[in-house]
Every structure is written in C-alpha cells, then in structure tokens.
C-alpha cells in the first residue's frame, strides 16, 4: 500500500519553488519539432542550402530556344 510522501527528518519539506526553471526547460524542449531532435540539420548545411526556383514542367522544355529568349507563341 502506498503512503503519503513525507519529508526526511531534519530536511524541510519541499515546496516545489525551484521547479519553475525545470518547467521552462521542458517547455522549450517540447517546442522543438520531434524530427529536429531526432535528425537535426547542421546550421552550416542549412545556411548553404540553395533557394528553390521554378522549373519547366516535364515535357514543357523548348530545346530550340536559347536562354534569355522569349518563348514563341
């Protein structure tokens, strides 16, 4: 049978006041997405990652056109 938690003789009962700092750390860790914790991307790789740009759809290439020329209508 479980009994109520009691303090150890000679040590005052804990009031939980120091748990606020621990709660802040737990909340900060919970804010990080699971994938970032499991498989983090190094900052230097993330910074060097190229910006995405639009591409032609499959079959939409005009092989006879040179770069910079307007498409024929």
Brief overview, please?
The chain is mainly alpha-helical.
What does this structure look like?
- This protein is mostly helical.
- It has a domain of about 30 residues.
- Helix content is about 35%, strand content about 0%.
- The protein contains three helices and no strands.
- The protein starts with 18 loop residues before the first helix and ends in a 25-residue tail after the last helix.
- The mean pLDDT is about 75.
SSE inventory with pairings:
Blueprint: H1 19-31, H2 34-38, H3 43-48
Q: Key terms for this structure?
A:
single chain, 73 residues
> How confident is the prediction overall: mean pLDDT?
77
Number of strands: 0
Structural class: mainly alpha
Estimate the helix proportion, in percent.
Answer: 25-40%
User: Helix-strand pattern, N to C?
Assistant: HHH
Sketch the major β-sheet: none
Shape: rod-shaped
Number of helices: 3
Rg measurement, Å:
30 Å
N- to C-terminal distance: 86 Å
Unreliable residue runs: none
Q: Report the sheet-strand fraction.
A: under 5%
């Amino acid at each position: 049978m479980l009994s109520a938690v009691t303090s150890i003789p000679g040590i005052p009962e804990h009031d939980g006041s120091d748990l606020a700092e621990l709660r802040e750390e737990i909340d900060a860790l919970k804010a990080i997405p699971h994938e970032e914790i499991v498989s983090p991307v190094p900052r230097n790789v993330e910074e060097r990652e190229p910006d995405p740009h639009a591409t032609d759809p499959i079959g939409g290439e005009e092989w006879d056109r040179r770069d910079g020329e307007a498409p024929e209508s």
